[in-house]
Amino acid sequence: MAETKGTNELYDDINITPMLDLAYVLLVTFIILTTAAVQVRSPVTQAADNLGKPQTRAVTITQDGAVYLDAYPVSLDQLRATLAQYKAANPNLPVVLKADAAAQYQKVMEVLDLIKGLDITEIGLVTKRVTP
Fold first, then answer.
1. Is 74 exposed, middle or buried (0-12, 13-18, 19+ CB in 10 A)?
2. At what angle do helices 105-117 and 76-89 cross, to 10 degrees?
3. pLDDT for 72-82, tens place per residue?
4. How many CB atoms lie within 10 A of CB 61?
5. In principle, which of 105, 113, 124, 126 could form an S-S bond with 98, CB 3.0–4.6 Å?
6. What pLDDT digit, counting tens, does each position of 46-58 carry?
7. Range of the domain at 70
């Protein structure tokens, strides 16, 4: 008769690290895909790094100056209130700013000032890497 392992022995061989990595990749992919609904042409740089982290919020500014939080249009007041709520829940809230290359510079500065005023220090700017 075959010997069966105890329940604890079965789980001793499972490595959950790949599952956590997969969950992280899926989260970042979801964030990117939900913000992909807002079309912007990102500026191009030589060195662009991946800025995705868990609980990252994406702020997008379109060419005509419309502001989106994740994939939802918001006013600057709504953006301030919502980011303040997220910041209260997560003091290390990461935010990425994705602006169209032709976006109004003043609007970009207003959004950056708003984020800075909420004491959000983990800010990333989305760009495209130049392809050789």
1. middle
2. 30
3. 999 999 999 99
4. 21
5. 126
6. 554 544 445 789 9
7. 15-129
